[in-house]
Amino acid sequence: MKVRWYQRLFWKMFLVIWLVSLVGMGSVFLVLSSRYDKDHKLELLEARARGQAMLMLERYEDGVPDWHKLPGRRHSIPVWLFEADSREPLMSGIHEPPRRALRLALTTDSGREYLAKVGLPREAFFVERMLGRLFSLQMVLILLVSGLAGLVLSGLVVRPIRRLSRHVRDLHQEQDLTLRADAGLSQRRDEIGELTREFDAMVASVEQTLLAQQRLLQDVSHELRAPLARLQAAAGLVEQRLAEDDPLMQRINRECERLDALISEILSFSRQQNKERPVEFSLNELCQELQEEVRLRQPARPFTLDLPDVAVHYRGARELLRRALQNGVENILRHTPEETPASLQLQVLPGGGLQISLSDAGPGVDEALLPRLFEPFVRDDSTSAEGFGLGMSIARRAVEQLGGRISAHNRPEGGFELRIQLPPAD
After folding, report:
1. Which end of the chain is more exposed for a tag (fewer CB within 10 A), N or C?
2. 89: helix, coil or strand?
3. Which strands, in side-by-side order, build the sheet including 101-107?
4. Coil, strand or helix at 419
5. Helix (H, G, I), strand (E, B) or coil at 221
6. Is 21 within 8 Å of 71 (Cβ atoms)?
7. Alpha-carbon distance 389 to 399, whole Å?
8. In Å, what is the CA distance from 255 to each residue of 229, 263, 386?
9. How confident is the model at residue 386 (pLDDT cuts 50, 70, 90)?
10. CA nearest 392: which of 323, 338, 337?
11. What is the mean pLDDT of residues 318-331?
12. Do residues 337 and 331 touch, judged by C-beta distance below 8 A?
C-alpha cells in the first residue's frame, strides 16, 4: 500500500513540532511585544506631554497672551492644566478632559505645583495589532527557527526508523533470516536501539525455530525411507506368491505409492529454504513444458495456453517457479474431472512485472477453505481426491522466495483460479 506524503511519520512529526514551537514561541513573543509596545508608547507620550506642559506653564507664569498656543508646533498634544491644590483649570471655556487620561504632577522653576492631564490614545483593534506583529521580522525568524527545529527533530527520529524498515524489507525480499540490522542501529543507546536489538533477537529465534522444524522434517522423512524400502521389498515378495491382480496386493502397492509421495512432498517442503542461483529462462518454454506434462498424464483434458506473441524471458530461480506452477497443475489434475477444461495465461504487467494465471472450469474451492488454502496440511475433505495438503503451501513458499505474491479465488463464471504475480527481474 502506497503511503501518501501527508501520511508519513516524518511530516506528521514535523507539523506537530513546528506548530507547537510556533504557537509557544509566537504566544510569548506576542505577549511580550504587546506589553513592551504599550509601555514604550506610554513613556513616549509622557515625555512629550511633560515637555509640552512645562513650556506652556512657563508661558503662563510669564503672562504671555494665548500662552496655551505654542508657536511652531503643528502636532501638539492636547493637554489640560490644573492648579495642584484647588484643581481649578488654568484654561476656561474648554471641554472636560477624557476619562482615560494620563495624570502628570509638574513643578515649575518658581516652585508652583500643577496637575496635567493628557488623553490616552485609542488602542488599535486586536486584529490590527496581531497583523502588525505577524508580519514583523521577529515573527518571520520564529517561523524559520520553529521549522528548522521540526525538521531536525523529525529527522533524528524518522531516519533510524526508515533504516530499520529497509532492513525488514530486505529480510522479506531476500528470505534470509541470517541478516541482521547494521551496527549503527543495534548499538544505539536509546529506544530505537533497544527496538532493533529486540527485533534481531526475534529474527534469530524464528531462524532457530524454522531450522529445527526443517531438520525435523528432513530427519523424519529420511527415517521413513528405510521402513518404506523394506515394506516395498516385502510387498514384492508377497506379490510373487499372489496374483498381480489380487485386490490385497493392489491395495498394498497403492498405499506404498501414497506413502512414497508423502515423503517426497515433505522433503520438498523442508528443502525449500535452500537458495537457488538465478538464471535467465523463457517463460513460454516453461508453460509449454507444463502443457506437455498435462497431455501425457491426462490426454483427454483440454488444456490451453494464452501466451504473448513475443517470447517472455525472466531472470530468477526457474526451478522454484516450475515447482509452484507444477503444484497448481497437480491441484487441477487431482480435484477436477479429466474432461474439465483448464488454461494457463501469461501476462506482462505495466512496469515489467509478470502475472501467471492458472484456472479451471471445475466446481471451485469451498469459500471457508480459501483463506487457509496455503497453510501446510490443509486440504478439502469434501472431495474424494487424494492429497496431503502440502502442494499449495510449497507453491506459496516458492513464489515468496521469488519475491512475488500468490493468491487463490473462485471465478464468478465458475471454477478455480491460482494467480502468481512476479516483480520485474533485476
Report:
1. N
2. strand
3. 79-83, 113-119, 101-107
4. strand
5. helix
6. no
7. 17
8. 13, 12, 11
9. low
10. 323
11. 86
12. no
Which grid coordinates are listed for 299? 490426454
Q: Copy the grid coordinates of residue 61.
A: 507664569
Please check whether residue 221 is in contact with residue 270, taking contact to mean a CB–CB distance below 8 angstroms.
yes
278 three-state secondary structure: coil
d(CA 82, CA 145): 53
> What cell does 19 get?
506548530
**Cα(117)–Cα(96) distance, integer angstroms:** 10
Residue 275 is predicted with a pLDDT of: 55
Three cell numbers written together for 387: 492429497
CA dist list (Å): 288 to 293, 334, 349: 9, 20, 20
- In this predicted model, which residue has the larger pLDDT, 387 or 279? 279
Burial class (CB in 10 A: 0-12, 13-18, 19+), 348: middle
Sheet holding 405-410, edge to edge: 303-306, 342-348, 354-360, 416-422, 405-410
Alpha carbons 417 and 328: distance in angstroms, whole number: 9
Cα separation values, 277 from 107, 211, 286, 324, Å: 104, 21, 17, 17
CA distances 175 to 99, 151, 275, 392, 397, Å, are 84, 35, 9, 18, 10
- Give the per-residue pLDDT at 426: 63
Let me know how long the chain is.
426
Residue 36 has pLDDT above 70, yes or no: no
In angstroms, the CA 418 to CA 182 distance is 38
User: Could you tell me which of 158, 136, 149, 131 has the C-alpha nearest to residue 19?
Assistant: 149
Q: What 8-state DSSP symbol labels residue 100?
A: S
Which cell is 217 given? Answer: 522434517
Q: Measured between alpha carbons, how far is residue 237 from residues 249, 253, 308 in Å?
A: 11, 12, 53
Segment 41-69 shows an average pLDDT of: 81
What is the DSSP code (8-state) at residue 6?
A: G
Cross-strand partners of 400? none
Model pLDDT for residues 131-164, shown as the tens digit of each residue:
555 556 666 776 777 777 777 777 777 788 778 8
Kindly indicate the confidence band of residue 357, based on its pLDDT and cuts at 50, 70 and 90: very high
Q: Say what the pTM is.
A: 0.45
Main-chain phi, psi angles of 422, to 5 degrees: -115, 140
Pairing, β 303-306 against β 342-348: parallel
73 contacts: CB under 8 Å, gap ≥ 6: 52
